[in-house]
Amino acid sequence: DAVWTSQWCRTRETARLMKMGTPEAKPALNSFFAGRGDRARQTRETRALIAALPRDARVLIVTHQVNITALTGRGVRSGEIIVTRRAQHGLEPVGRISVDR
Fold this sequence. Notes:
The protein is of the alpha/beta class.
């Protein structure tokens, strides 16, 4: 239903190559690694964006490891997809998909 990316070219290109819909850049999804952003604020904003979606909406989020870990509590490898569902307090991981390069 939606494809969200950070504003960084790597995430935008990855989303485009996946051909799952038109990517929409969301500043809250930008990396906050090494002090480049604000982890708490960006995670809060991303959770608010997700909460504002219709309950049955699906969203593909292409972002950075630090953002994924903050949102799911799980680490992720490069090129790996973490499948989640909405839970009362954020996103609950329910699976992983490894993408062969």
